C-alpha cells in the first residue's frame, strides 16, 4: 500500500469521525440513553403503584450500553411483533403485558416466550413492561377507557393506600343519561371495535337508561366485586361466566371487548405522551405503535 493511499485513508477516517462527533454532540443524548428513557417511563407511571403480584419495569437489559433510537410500543410481545421490531431496528420495546411473568427455569428455543427473550438478548433489544402501573396512574389505560363515554365526574374505584391519586378501576357519572344501546355504540366507535359482548341486566333492556358506569381494562372481575358504588354499567375486557351472571343480577349491564382490546387503543395516546415527555420528535427518537399486535381472539 502506497504512502499516499495510507494518508488518504487516515484523512478519510478523521473526517468521518469528525462528522459522527458533530452529529453526536448535536443530539440531546440525555433523552437517548436507556437509563434516562427508563426514568421517563417510571416518572409517568411509578412502579410502586403496580399490583404487588405484577412483574413490571425493565425485564431485558442489553449487555452493552447504547442510546435508544427507536421505540416500539405493543400490548403483547409475540413473535410477529418481535419480527416487526427487528425489521424496524427498534432497540427498546415497551410492552404492556410482561413477557416474563412466572419464574423461568430455562431459556431454550422450544418455547415461544423463551425464544422471544433469547432473540431480544441476541439483538441487544431492551424490554420494558409497565402493566398495572399504567392501569393505576393518571392518564393511563384506565382513564383512557373511561373516556369512551362523556364523563361528568369520576373517581378511582380502588385507591392505592399509599397515594390515593393512583389505583385500579374508575367509577364515573355521565354528563347526560343515555340508553345502553347508545352507550354501546359510543364504546365501539371510541375503541374501534366492530363487535363487543353485552350483558343486559335482569329485568332491563337495551333501551334502559344509564347514568353511571365503571371501567377496568383487562380482566375486571376482581375490581367489579370491590365496587360498592351504585353503577348501571361495567366496561371491561373480559369477565368469567359467573362474574357476568353476578353482575346482571346486581342490575349492572356489562360490556366486554376481549381482554387486550380494552387496553391496546391506549398505545396511540401513550405515543404522544412519551414524545412530549422525551422533549423530542420522531425525527430524533422514532416511536411507533405495533401494526401486527392483535387480540388472539376474534369474531367470525
TrEMBL record:
GO cellular component: mitochondrion
Gene Ontology terms, MF aspect: metal ion binding
UniProtKB keywords: Metal-binding
Domain of life: Eukaryota
InterPro entries: DUF34/NIF3, DUF34/NIF3_sf
Pfam families, A to Z: DUF34_NIF3
Gene3D superfamilies according to UniProt: NIF3 (NGG1p interacting factor 3)-like (3.40.1390.30)
Binding site for a divalent metal cation: 97, 135, 259, 263
Family affiliation: Belongs to the GTP cyclohydrolase I type 2/NIF3 family.
PANTHER family in the cross-refs: NGG1 INTERACTING FACTOR 3, NIF3-LIKE PROTEIN 1
Protein name as it appears in the record: NIF3-like protein 1
Source species: Clunio marinus
Amino acid at each position: 500500500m502506497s504512502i499516499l493511499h495510507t494518508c488518504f485513508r487516515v484523512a478519510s477516517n478523521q473526517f468521518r469521525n469528525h462528522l459522527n462527533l458533530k452529529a453526536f454532540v448535536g443530539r440531546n443524548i440525555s433523552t437517548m440513553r436507556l437509563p434516562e428513557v427508563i426514568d421517563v417511563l417510571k416518572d409517568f407511571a411509578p412502579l410502586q403503584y403496580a399490583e404487588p403480584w405484577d412483574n413490571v419495569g425493565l425485564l431485558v437489559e442489553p449487555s452493552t450500553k447504547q442510546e435508544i433510537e427507536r421505540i416500539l410500543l405493543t400490548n403483547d410481545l409475540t413473535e410477529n411483533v418481535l419480527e416487526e421490531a427487528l425489521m424496524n431496528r427498534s432497540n427498546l420495546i415497551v410492552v404492556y403485558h410482561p413477557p416474563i411473568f412466572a419464574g423461568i427455569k430455562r431459556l431454550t428455543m422450544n418455547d415461544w416466550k423463551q425464544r422471544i427473550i433469547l432473540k431480544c438478548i441476541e439483538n441487544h433489544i431492551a424490554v420494558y413492561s409497565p402493566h398495572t402501573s399504567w392501569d393505576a396512574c393518571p392518564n393511563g389505560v384506565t382513564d383512557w377507557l373511561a373516556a369512551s363515554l362523556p364523563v361528568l365526574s369520576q373517581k378511582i374505584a380502588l385507591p392505592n393506600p399509599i397515594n390515593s391519586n393512583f389505583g385500579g378501576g374508575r367509577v364515573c357519572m355521565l354528563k347526560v343519561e343515555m340508553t345502553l344501546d347508545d352507550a354501546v355504540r359510543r364504546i365501539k366507535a371510541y375503541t374501534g371495535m366492530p363487535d363487543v359482548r353485552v350483558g343486559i341486566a335482569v329485568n332491563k333492556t337495551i333501551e334502559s337508561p344509564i347514568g353511571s358506569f365503571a371501567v377496568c381494562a383487562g380482566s375486571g372481575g376482581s375490581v367489579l366485586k370491590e365496587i360498592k358504588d351504585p353503577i348501571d354499567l361495567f366496561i371491561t375486557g373480559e369477565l368469567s361466566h359467573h362474574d357476568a351472571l353476578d353482575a346482571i343480577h346486581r342490575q349492572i349491564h356489562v360490556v366486554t371487548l376481549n381482554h387486550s382490546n380494552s387496553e391496546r387503543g391506549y398505545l396511540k395516546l401513550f405515543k404522544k405522551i412519551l414524545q412530549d415527555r422525551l422533549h423530542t420528535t420522531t425525527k430524533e427518537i422514532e416511536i411507533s405503535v405495533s401494526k401486527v399486535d392483535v387480540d388472539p381472539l376474534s369474531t367470525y
